[in-house]
Amino acid sequence: MHSHGRFEQEAWTYDRETLDLYRELVLLHERLVPYTRAAAATAARCGLPIVRPLCLSDPGDPRGWSIADAYGYGSALWVAPVLEPGASERVVELPRGEWIDFWTDEPVAGGGEALAAAPIGRLPVWVRSGSIIVTYPAEHVAAGLGDTEEGERPLEATLWGEPRLGRASARLADGTRVCWRAGEWSVSADREVAFAERG
Question: Which distant-in-sequence residues (6+ apart) come within 8 Å of 15 by Cβ?
Answer without folding.
Answer: none
